[in-house]
Amino acid sequence: MTDLTRANKYEEENRIDKSEKPVFHVTPPVGWMNDPNGFSIFQGKIHLFYQYHPYRDTWGPMHWGHCVSEDFVKWKELPIALAPDKDYDAAGCFSGSAIETEDGHVLIYTGVMEKKGADGGKEVVQQQCMAIGDGIYYEKADGNPVLPAELLPDGFSREDFRDPKVWREEETYYLVAGNRNGSQNGQVVLFASENLKDWRYISVLAHNQGKYGKMWECPDFFSLGQKYILVVSPQDMRADGAEFHNGNQAAALIGEYDRQTYHLREEQVVSLDYGTDFYAPQTLETKDGRRIMIAWMQSWDMNIKPAEQRWNGMMTIPRQLELRNHVLYQYPVKELDRYRTEPVVYKDKEISGHCQIPGVRGRVLDLTVELQGGDYREFTVSFAGNEEYHTSFRYVRATQCIEFDRTFSGMERDAVCQRSMKIKNAGETLKLRLLLDKFSVELFVNDGVQTFTSTFYTPLDAQDIVFVCDKRARVNIEKYNIILDGEEEGGDLFERV
User: Fold this and answer.
1) Which H/E stretch holds residue 220?
2) Is 89 a catalytic residue?
3) DSSP type of residue 493
4) Which tens digits make up the pLDDT trace of 379-403?
5) Distance (Å, rounded) from C-alpha 437 to C-alpha 489?
6) Which of 255, 312, 316, 354 is deepest in the core (most CB within 10 A)?
7) Rounded distance, CA 462 to CA 385, Å?
């Protein structure tokens, strides 16, 4: 029995019931999930792969899990695509990307190998490998690794050389990967090929300048509006004022792409999310020209899931990106709207004190709260609550900050519970859109100028939503349940192929 067959057999025999998991966010069938991989369109369908360890609920030898969708919301599980079963990837099939070609669906991933070094110790080498498939089953290329570490310039790290993102421009394929330079600082290196098999080094597309963390993981490079954006996930990043508080961060470098030097001239660097659980985002472009991003909804350093839970990790809702007036917006894909049901709408409602509003409760929903005015100083949206539990966002008007608190969400571990976010370009009104899906919240502020993503594992009988206001606030409220194909909360999202 091959390693891939064994992994698929184990998954089939240990698959976790859908009722135990979120409704409209991707989760692993069993075991551990991290970075999104191979987010792409092939033969008209949306494919999402991910870093996967089926055998335990902790990180381990990396496989590629796989699911497919027609609308970014409802996903079908497919067989595991890759297992670490070759000499060049025996220590893991690490992150990468995918692209549709005439020969099939091509996966480009990092193969990790360990060997004995000259000093007798363990030496790790990361190289880029290829597999080709039909959208369900994949075969690794005979010529792997197609982009060996030896193609890097002298002094560049062979141990930290991973997470390739590939795209095509006219007759040439390009690839960016995360790397460290001779000073052990993070950079993104650029390669080119005409056939995906024979690669040549082009340039250092961008580097961290000694201030944006260290190793840059999971790069993604694309044009948006009139600019180019390089998405990176820096490790070991220090906070800078109100920005970059996660250590393992996700950032966007926005600027001009110099095609003569193949270098990004950055004009601004922005946080992609202000919450506790957002990392390793990856994007694709749809047929209608939208740029869609998905990310791992968890933090490396804050694993707060209950010990008895046999799955670990989930993805964000896919988000559309737009660049308007030099501001990067992100908001849930429009396809989610078709699953919104049972609307509850209040206009110009006055809220003071503690207030529960008829029809506004639950753990799987889309809730928008728009603060129109009033003499309030603080306004709080508390959710996933009952007599024992709650999680909340509090808006402090004087400082124009939103404060998140999951202290009473049921956590039993020492982890970050509170975090604040300074609102950009704050005005008289404030619009908060919350997506709740059992164990997570994604907050979109003022139509996506900023986002805040966090997990919490409160018991599911905590369904209350409470509004708290120190004086009086005038608000618009719009709430929808999210139900997939007529199924209630906890219904079967994933259909096995």
Assistant:
1) strand 216-224
2) no
3) -
4) 999 999 999 999 999 999 999 999 9
5) 9
6) 316
7) 5
